[in-house]
Amino acid sequence: MNTVIVGAQWGDEGKGKIIDILAREADYIVRYQGGNNAGHTVVIGKEKFILHLIPSGILHAGKVCMIGNGVVIDPQALISEIEGLKSKGIKINSNFLIDNRVHIIFPYHRVLDSLREDRKGRASIGTTRRGIGPCYADKAARIGLRLCDLFDEQSFAKRLKEILGEKNEILKKVYNFKGFGFKEVYDTYCGYSRKIKKYSSDCYRVLNQAAKDGKNVLFEGAQGTLLDIDYGTYPYVTSSSAIAGGASPGTGIGPSRIDKIIGVVKAYTTRVGEGPFPTEFSAKLMTAIQKKGEEFGATTGRSRRCGWFDSVLARYSAIINGLDEIAVTKLDVLDGLKTLNICTGYRYNNKMLMDFPSNTEILNKIEPVYEEHPGWEEDTSRILEYSRLPLNSRKYLKRIAELLETKVSIISVGSERKQTIFV
Fold first, then answer.
1. For residue 119, which phi and psi values (nearest 5 degrees)?
2. Is the whole-model pTM more than 0.70?
3. E-assigned strands of 90-209?
4. DSSP sequence for 280-332
5. CA 324 to each of CA 2, 320, 349: distance values in angstroms, whole numbers, following the listed order
6. Does the annotation count 324 as an active-site position?
7. Using CA atoms, how far apart are residues 391 and 420, in angstroms rounded to an integer?
8. pLDDT tens digit string along 333-377?
9. Is position 12 annotated as part of the catalytic site?
10. Which entry of 40, 52, 109, 373 is annotated as an active-site residue?
11. Beta-strand relationship, 407-412 and 325-329
């Protein structure tokens, strides 16, 4: 079965753990969008692995992990990640492939990302400043450089000179930044390409043959639906198709070959960076949940904003992605709360909105309408069977499933692999 795992909120839903668990039954695990602006955390025993580009399936023996053409790669970050995993005894050789069509992040992408954010001041959108957006912009403008372009060093030199000429003009005249010298960038990236060339492949061929052979493929998304370039809270979004539909153009496998789509949600809601957040907690509860849930970004270390479960937002995600099932993570973080709220609608200009608005200004002005639910006192982190969960927690999960019109199939009650309940 070919399955897509997608974030159904603003990212950071705990996809890394869900992918890691489902990877046990997969033959291939493929990342289909984003860059090293994402982070998946997996805890195995006392060891914590934070992955930014390589699929978390790499932690399982006998699996083939791929980075699809829809991803943008910073070679320095990728090489560092590979070396870090190898130092922990993780095998990375023929079990890891990179599509040779991936676009490459250069130093000017990172600098432009930072300079633009600084220029916006308080109006900044809160990017990770890793050059992801500018790289995708060059891809769309047809002036990007792909992994395969780096392998022909003569052609690469010619194109890089042209691109640097334009980028340096922008950096100097718009941002008063000195720009980049050709030789240093060229030599550095030729060195990177020699190190990662052995992993280069036509991944679409491998994947489509795997599908014909009846292999199980797991497609891994980064970020979340509400950060999608089209369907997210624009402009406070990422620069790629973070929804399940992005798996097809991001890997070269036809949509008809995808069998199941699983959306991952937290038992509450979080987001990193700027942008509207209708169900955001008060300061006191925010601090408590951030501490208990360890709500700090795996990539940037920034504190995540936290709020009540927003079923309007999550139902929108369920529709956009065509979710077959949902995995609910961090249920244990809500242990001990006397009451819980679920947002079931928005009030705007004395009208009830049951659908997620596309206009960011409206989102900034809406008032969430809540349903109150009784909490539970018991510790859920050691429970391994659904029937043993506290009654109120099961009612809470049932209500989420009803509101999203999607069944709950997986419940996570902690960061470790064993702290997982299959329904």
1. -65, -35
2. yes
3. 96-99, 103-104, 200-201
4. BPPHHHHHHHHHHTT-B-TTT-PBPEEE-EEHHHHHHHHHHHT-SEEEEE-GG
5. 13, 12, 34
6. no
7. 18
8. 999 999 999 999 999 999 999 999 999 999 999 999 999 999 999
9. yes
10. 40
11. parallel
